[in-house]
Write a structure and sequence with these properties.
By secondary structure, this protein is of the alpha+beta class. It has six helices and 16 strands. The protein binds 5,6-dihydrouridine-5'-monophosphate and zinc ion (ZN).
């Protein structure tokens, strides 16, 4: 006789409600040996100012412009922008096989701090709050432009995630059209509101808080969970408890609470493998297209690549590329590992 189904032991599929896509969970595979590639851990200490860094105050950037001697945050137009505001509009191709469209947009780089050696996890709360304010102000300003349909804020942190520079920074890409991932979330959230009469992610968060086993950290206004459908080993989803459609909806206290939650979550991440934890993170909120978007709930995704240590990462290859994303460690096991971490940074202990 076989034992009854146990999600902590047996392979199963889980559905990502935000995309409508399925992922595969294979908990029994965690014990397999690893003889593959290992990564180089980030350097242990960096200088506070690096004369060769193109983001440090007063330095010359690759495009030849000089950064001001900024004291907190600093935003500039990306010198190698992927999109331009002045690209002529129009559908280039409507051929059945060769379809293309002109796309316009604005790309900016946002420096979180003048200090070359810091990360968001290592910054003081008032300075993290300044970053939250900066993100908010970028979303507000860019969403008001009639030629912008979506504002994507993101951060690539660490060489492993392709970040070009350790100086704490993120990016903003604002586009005419809604990009692929937010468009999937738009469809899923809209369908849920239409059928259930409430925003999907508000109902989802309440269900997660009730279940408890995927919650990582929370405060009065925010919670971070390893989503039920997480693909990356230590992926998290950060959600406000109240219905907020985008960053500009947050009250001042909610921005403070967000700064607190970010600091705690990122400290937990750094403590997990005692390293400056790499990730790609970004905010998803309501599009800037005309009309109301009551189905939208603001959230941030954190996608960290590390699996077992500061030098062993998960690869999204083979089956993931050709069939469906797969993970070994369950979301519940990952959340438990994260919850066990100190909320004081290992470098401060
Ligand atoms: P990462 O977030 O992946 O590190 O990228 C940093 C961005 O900074 C990248 O998009 C831009 C690059 O185009 N950049 C400038 O705009 N000016 C520079 O002098 C170097 C890098
Ligand atoms: Zn720097």
């Amino acid at each position: 006789m076989t034992a009854p189904f146990d999600p902590a032991e047996h392979p199963h599929r889980r559905r990502n409600l935000l995309t409508g896509e399925w992922i595969l969970v294979s908990p029994h595979r965690m014990k397999r040996p690893w003889q593959g590639q290992t990564e180089t851990a980030p350097p242990l200490s960096l200088p506070q100012y690096d004369p060769s860094c193109y983001l440090c105050p007063g330095n010359e950037r690759a495009g030849g412009l000089i950064n001001p001697n900024y004291t907190h945050t600093f935003v500039f137009e990306n010198d190698f922008a992927a999109l331009r505001a002045d690209t002529p509009d129009g559908t280039l191709q409507t051929n059945r096989f060769f379809q293309s469209q002109a796309e316009t947009g604005i790309c900016r780089v946002v420096c979180f701090s003048p200090r070359h050696d810091l990360t968001l996890a290592r910054m003081d709360l008032p300075d993290i709050r300044r970053v939250v304010d900066l993100w908010t102000q970028q979303v507000e300003e860019l969403s008001q432009r009639k030629e912008i349909g979506y504002v994507q804020l993101f951060e690539n942190r660490g060489a492993m995630m392709g970040s070009s520079n350790p100086h704490p920074h993120g990016q903003v890409w604002a586009t005419r059209r809604i990009p692929t991932e937010p468009a999937k979330e738009d469809r899923q959230q809209r369908a849920y509101l239409e059928s259930q009469g409430a925003p999907l992610l508000l109902d989802y968060l309440n269900a997660e808080l009730k279940a408890g086993d995927r919650v990582v950290v929370e405060n009065e206004d925010w919670a971070a969970v390893v989503p039920f459908w997480a693909v990356w080993p230590f992926e998290t989803l950060l959600l406000p408890r109240r219905h907020c459609q985008h960053l500009a909806d947050l009250a001042p206290e909610e921005r403070d609470a967000l700064s607190d939650l970010l600091r705690r979550l990122l400290t937990i991440y750094d403590n997990l493998f005692e390293t400056s934890f790499p990730y790609s993170m970004g905010w998803h909120g309501k599009p800037a297209t005309p009309g109301d978007h009551p189905h939208w709930q603001l959230h941030a995704h954190f996608f960290p690549p590390l699996l077992r240590s500061s030098t062993i990462r998960k690869f999204m290859v083979g089956y993931e590329m050709l069939a469906t994303p797969q993970r070994d460690l369950t979301a519940e096991q990952a959340a438990q590992r994260l919850r066990m971490q100190h909320q004081t940074h290992y470098l401060d202990r």
